[in-house]
From TrEMBL:
Name of the protein: Amidohydrolase
One Pfam family of this chain: Amidohydro_1
Gene3D superfamilies: Amidohydrolase, Metal-dependent hydrolases, Urease, subunit C, domain 1
Record keywords: Hydrolase
Domain of life from the UniProt record: Bacteria
Organism: Cyclobacterium marinum (strain ATCC 25205 / DSM 745 / LMG 13164 / NCIMB 1802)
Length: 456
């Protein structure tokens, strides 16, 4: 009788254990971030948990109290570390070479090495279409790619008919959106917009000075990049300026700009649902008083070729060597940009994190940290900056990414410390996961070392 009682007690215990919620053995096709601190980019809350990934999806998020047998799963130790959604670089560039060209592969890896798991290519080429598909199918190690068309500008679209034809061709080719550059005349722009609406392809980029910011906003750009055209839009009509004499993104009109006009432009951006990609790092590195010799000596420059570095030094000196550029005026110009950025964030459609890379002294991946620094200087809080690099791009693309939630694609950054306390903690990640593909800290260091050696 006693043995029978012990048998029943043991059986009840086994049943009870098996009935525990989440009690199961993980399998070899699963990866678990064990005991990691999840950063909730919606609220800023930090939650310790196990995060289980299967294939490219976050399958489950389980509390530390759950009874789990990691069994054959790949275990990534997250204890004491922080897990953040992957970032988006919303003004990226990709070399116009075939997908298997080493420079293309290196550029994509530089983005990934800094936790960038989504890029929006802003100067499309026909070779980027198969590259985008290979990235989507995970045939190559790459961030998620969205690509623009080739440039539409004052030289490539000189007539309404030419604009309509190019828009049709680019839409049919399958580009995600049209890239606009300066020089487009207003009547050509209007034809371009009509064709874009007809063929269902959005447009984004620069605002031609003959179009103007108000007309651009009212016609529904998907994004305006570089805060282009806004400073020109702050100049009162009675100033009677020639719009073609605006200088570098309106720099020549700095003293004429009236910041009291900012709310009007911000309201137009909100009403017409136009996002803004600031690329503030350009204006604090390339177009800034910092000497080229200091920038070219920074550690991240080792990942660029000697020829690229040489060209960047020349470009910066040519841009800032003229009599019209001086530090006092630049500070005023930059302060107006800060005001615009903060207002567009708080009261406009919103901001999308983007630095413009590779560009003069903007190394792919690494430049996002300079952009983040610029957003802090403009008055955004750390959580808000993380949101414009995660949640906002996901909303913009209507994508299944941008947060750590069950069912979302597994774009993740593992960090040593809490980025909400210091955004510098985003640098040197312990590893990056791009749609389920894990890139360890060791792999990142080894690949960066190879790129460095190649460029010596």
């Amino acid at each position: 009788m006693k043995n029978q009682f012990l048998y029943l007690l043991l059986l009840a215990s086994i049943v009870s254990c098996n009935a525990k919620k989440g009690s199961r053995a993980l399998t070899a096709d699963q990866t678990v971030f064990a005991e990691v601190n999840i950063v909730d980019v919606r609220s800023g809350a930090i939650s310790p948990a196990h995060v289980i990934v299967k294939e490219n999806i976050i399958e489950q998020i389980l509390s530390l109290e759950e009874d789990i047998d990691f069994a054959k799963a790949k275990v990534i130790d997250g204890k004491g570390n922080y897990l953040l959604p992957g970032l988006a670089e919303m003004h990226a560039h990709i070399p116009d070479k075939a997908w298997d060209d080493p420079l293309v592969q290196e550029t994509l890896f530089l983005y990934l090495s800094n936790g960038i798991t989504t890029i929006r290519g802003m100067l499309g080429n026909e070779v980027h279409l198969p590259l985008r598909e290979k990235a989507a199918n995970q045939e190559i190690l790459s961030p998620r790619i969205f690509t623009s068309s080739p440039s539409l500008n004052g030289n490539t679209v000189t007539t309404p008919e030419e604009a309509q034809e190019k828009v049709k061709n680019y839409a049919e080719a399958g580009y995600d959106f049209l890239k606009l550059h300066p020089g487009i005349r207003k009547h050509v722009f209007d034809s371009l917009v009509a064709a874009a609406n007809k063929y269902g392809i959005p447009f984004a980029g620069h605002v031609s000075n003959l179009v103007g910011i108000r007309h651009a906003l009212k016609n529904g750009y998907q994004t305006i990049d570089h805060v282009d055209g806004f400073i020109e839009g702050l100049v009162p009509k009675e100033a009677g300026v020639n719009p073609t004499e605006n200088g570098f993104f309106g720099f020549n009109f700095t003293e004429l700009a009236n910041p009291n006009t900012i709310p009007e432009l911000v309201e137009l951006s909100k009403k017409n649902k136009v996002w803004v990609v600031p690329t503030q790092s350009l204006f604090e590195r390339w177009f800034s008083p910092i000497p080229a010799e200091i920038l070219v000596d920074q550690e991240e420059m080792q990942y660029m070729s000697p020829k690229t570095r040489e060209n960047w030094v020349k470009s910066k000196k040519n841009l800032t060597a003229g009599d019209n550029f001086n530090e006092t005026k630049w500070k005023q110009f930059n302060q107006i940009r800060y005001q615009l950025i903060k207002a567009l964030h708080e009261d406009g459609q919103g901001l999308l994190l983007g630095s413009d890379a590779p560009q003069v002294f903007n190394v792919p991946g690494f430049s996002i940290h300079h952009e983040i620094k610029g957003m802090l200087a403009a008055g955004l809080r750390p959580l808000e900056i993380l949101q414009i690099g995660t949640l906002n791009p996901a909303q913009y693309f209507d994508g299944n990414f941008g947060a750590i939630e069950e069912g979302m694609e597994a774009d993740l950054i593992l960090l040593k410390a809490n980025p909400l306390e210091d955004l510098n903690h985003l640098k040197n990640p312990l590893g990056v996961m791009a749609r389920g593909q894990w890139i360890s800290e060791e792999t990142i260091k080894e690949k960066l070392k190879q790129i460095d050696e190649k460029n010596k």
